[in-house]
Design goal:
Blueprint lengths: L32 E6 L3 E6 L22 E7 L4 E6 L3 E6 L13 E2 L9 E7 L7 E6 L3 E6 L13 E2 L10 E7 L4 E6 L4 E5 L13 E2 L9 E6 L7
Antiparallel strand pairs: 1-2, 1-3, 2-6, 4-5, 4-7, 5-10, 8-9, 8-11, 9-14, 12-13, 12-15
Length: about 240
Amino acid sequence: QARGRPLVNLLPLASHERITAFLPLEKEQQGQFVFMSTAKGIVKKCSLEAFSRPRQSGLRALTLSEGDELVSAGMTQGDSDLLLFSCSGKSIRFAESDVRVMGRTARGVKGIALNPDQRLISMLVVDQNELDKTVLTATARGYGKRTVVNAFPRKRRGGQGVIAIQNGSRNGSLIGAVLTSSEDELMLLTDGGRLVRTGVDGISELGRNTQGVRLITLADGENLISLGLVVDSTDT
């Protein structure tokens, strides 16, 4: 219950289901696409109009193979670029046009090639007016860096990608990536329940094949598990 009002069940979920992504929409949005990615590196592109007649029980947006799950969803313009990031510290950048528009029940196509012990952990949508931004990557041991978007070469989808950040014993696995501008602020969350807020402009801008700098000091056994940009309420 929030401020005396009962909570609303927005979507009835089965016992094995959980919400992994949500997209804010405006009524006048048309001609855009919903782009989805899964833990096994599968991507899918659907017309936004395919979701124009919602049902109380929800609409199927993606058919998943056994053991797979939706990781991320974003809105694309038709000429956007996609960057996929795996826990191994690798990333692939490809044009949205590499993926055809599919129906809601389709499984999708391979976005990035992963080893059996790897998983996709993040997807970024980069529009043509955002190519001057930087990609901030962060690892489980609290290290990270900013790298310019154009340092990630555009390839065809389905490859193994290039190194986004080194993930050796010092860094640990890649846990997240966000698209940033120098005026942004970042929230870092650890599995010890600590949350740290920091300015993006204080984080070094480095090349792809580097280890990065310390973002947060962790206790023994503590890991960084999540990061996200601080949203200014005046922009919404």
